[in-house]
Design a protein that fits this description.
101 residues, 6 strands, YaeB-like fold, globular, alpha+beta
């Protein structure tokens, strides 16, 4: 089992879904701010979807508010797909937003 949290390394081509882009806009987070904040992102959860795909929940704290980013790591297409971005609910997450309650 992997240790969490751990740094997120972006070695693959990064794609951002239209949904994630719309969520950033609704959070008033510019794409440039988001890109910068991903440099210090941490993986806080990881779930295998198949032999070649993993879903990661990534915490971003280098923005005005903490954000969770859901990423599909796809080894077949050699890409990290950002599926959605959201502000974690403090009632559902620990105070540091790294563990579910």
């Amino acid at each position: 089992m992997a240790d969490f949290p751990r740094p997120k390394h972006w070695h693959r081509r990064r794609l951002i879904s239209e949904h994630a882009f719309d969520k950033l806009r609704s959070l008033d987070c510019t794409f440039a701010e988001f890109e910068r904040s991903l440099e210090r992102a941490e993986i806080i959860e990881e779930h295998a979807l198949s032999d070649k795909q993993v879903k990661e929940v990534v915490l971003v704290v280098d923005w005005t508010r903490p954000l969770h980013v859901v990423v599909i790591v796809d080894d077949v297409n050699d890409e990290d797909r950002v599926i959605t971005v959201y502000e974690p609910d403090p009632n559902r997450w620990s105070a540091d937003y790294r563990r579910r309650r």
